[in-house]
């Protein structure tokens, strides 16, 4: 696969996968400890199997992925409430990682909690998604597959965009198409601009809006010009990531408090501290100043660099 030639050096190839090999290798966990004991908990085990098969067995791109190229992901669907009529309210945690060139290290690329997931599910109900008919016959039943398809495309977009500048645009557009054709009902939230400033609408909007074009440059700089260069030249790697932070700082100045900026930085604080722990004092000072503004939640961790 031409998209990621460097990955062939990361692992020992023990076999040749089919040209139609799927792109995602996801571990899916469904928790339902908060659901009434009157609900048969076997339903959620069946759901876990169904959504795992949906994400892992569907062909999401036209590219052929070797087994060792599959994107490693974790999904945690924590069902908070049973609303009646087989309708559930849940939170979904999405995590994905990207292998770093010439190492065994996987760098976090996405770490996000979506607390706006409402869906209908009956045991053995098929989990189906049609990008030309996102709403399906029952919007509530169609919502979970739509949410999962949305985040798979976001993951693919970030992964492709980390290897080639603007390489993820196709998948960000697919995510935007899902937003624009999302299931609608009184119980479903997360798809509309007026509901929240940090939801599925705004993430896809930012990724497809030219006002946030620097985000794509920052994504590429962080991984391809930064993390991937550490093995051969640590200083060049730090400079690449420092350049990413400069781009993010400019983006924040032009678009304060944007969702995409917070989305990108979530889960990266520990990695960033390690990256710059051996930097010279001038670089540390610059980095801490920027990160303390961009990622206020983790400002205390960044100050340890000084």
What level of helicity do the residues show?
A: 40-55%
Report how far the terminal alpha carbons are from each other. 43 Å
Summarize the biggest pleated sheet: 4 strands, mixed
Order of helices and strands: EHEEEHHHHHHHHH
Number of strands: 4
Globally, the shape reads globular
Mean pLDDT: 92
Characterize the structure shown:
Helix 3 crosses helix 4 and helix 5 runs antiparallel to helix 6. Helices cover 42% and strands 16% of the residues. The protein folds into 2 domains: 186 residues, no CATH class; 90 residues. A 4-stranded mixed beta sheet has the order 1-2-3-4, covered by helices on one side. The longest helix is centred in the middle third of the chain and has 25 residues. The chain has 306 residues and is of the alpha+beta class. The protein is globular, with a radius of gyration of 20 Å. The N and C termini lie far apart (43 Å). The protein is built from 10 helices and 4 strands, in the order βαβββααααααααα.
């Amino acid at each position: 696969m031409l998209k990621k030639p460097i990955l062939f050096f990361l692992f020992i190839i023990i076999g040749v996968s089919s040209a139609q090999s799927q792109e995602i290798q996801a571990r899916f966990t469904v928790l339902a400890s908060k659901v009434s004991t009157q609900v048969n908990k076997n339903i959620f085990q069946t759901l876990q199997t169904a959504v795992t098969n949906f994400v892992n067995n569907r062909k999401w791109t036209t590219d052929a992925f070797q087994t060792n190229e599959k994107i490693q992901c974790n999904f945690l669907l924590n069902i908070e409430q049973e609303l009646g009529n087989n309708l559930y309210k849940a939170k979904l945690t999405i995590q994905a990682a990207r292998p770093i060139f010439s190492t065994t290290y996987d760098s976090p690329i996405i770490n996000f909690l979506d607390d706006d997931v409402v869906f209908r599910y009956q045991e053995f109900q098929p989990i189906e998604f049609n990008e030309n008919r996102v709403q399906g016959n029952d919007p509530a039943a169609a919502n979970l597959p739509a949410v999962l398809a949305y985040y798979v495309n976001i993951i693919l977009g970030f992964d492709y965009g980390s290897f080639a500048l603007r390489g993820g645009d196709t998948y960000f557009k697919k995510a935007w198409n899902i937003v624009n054709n999302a299931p609608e009902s009184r119980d479903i939230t997360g798809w509309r601009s007026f509901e929240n400033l940090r939801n599925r609408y705004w993430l896809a909007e930012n990724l497809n809006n030219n006002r946030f074009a620097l985000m794509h440059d920052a994504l590429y700089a962080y991984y391809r010009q930064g993390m991937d260069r550490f093995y051969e030249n640590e200083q060049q790697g730090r400079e690449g990531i420092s350049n990413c932070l400069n781009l993010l700082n400019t983006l924040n100045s032009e678009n304060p408090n944007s969702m995409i900026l917070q989305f990108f930085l979530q889960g990266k604080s520990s990695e960033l501290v390690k990256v710059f722990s051996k930097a010279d004092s001038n670089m540390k000072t610059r980095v801490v100043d920027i990160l303390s503004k961009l990622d206020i939640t983790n400002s205390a961790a960044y100050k340890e660099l000084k």
